[in-house]
Amino acid sequence: HVQLVESGGGSVQAGGALRLSCEASGNAASMRCMGWVRQAPGKDYEGVASLDPFHGATNYADFVKGRFTISRDSAKKTLYLRMNRLNTEDTGVYYCAAEKGNYGDYCGPSWPFGNRGQGTQDTVS
Prior knowledge:
Strand content: over 45%
Radius of gyration: 13 Å
Helix content: under 10%
Low-confidence stretches: none
Structural class: mainly beta
């Protein structure tokens, strides 16, 4: 089992930036794919970005490409999401996510993440 704790959310004006952090503990080393998902008010969860812990590859949903950057600090067991040029449609609760899988599986934003943190509210006005 993996524990994920997010921090860094808040309120920002359109065009601004935020950086989210996610500290992973427990069985984090066994996760095949890690990433960020979000839920806007009244909408379903949607994958935002992913990071392959084995290969380091990153992938993004089309609506954040060029604006968001996912990264990690392996020593600190921390995952980050840097969000630039935010707009009102980026408002929502952002969750750090992780899941097991097979070595050859593709790790992308739409990975069926079964483990999520408690979420952090980000509001863009």
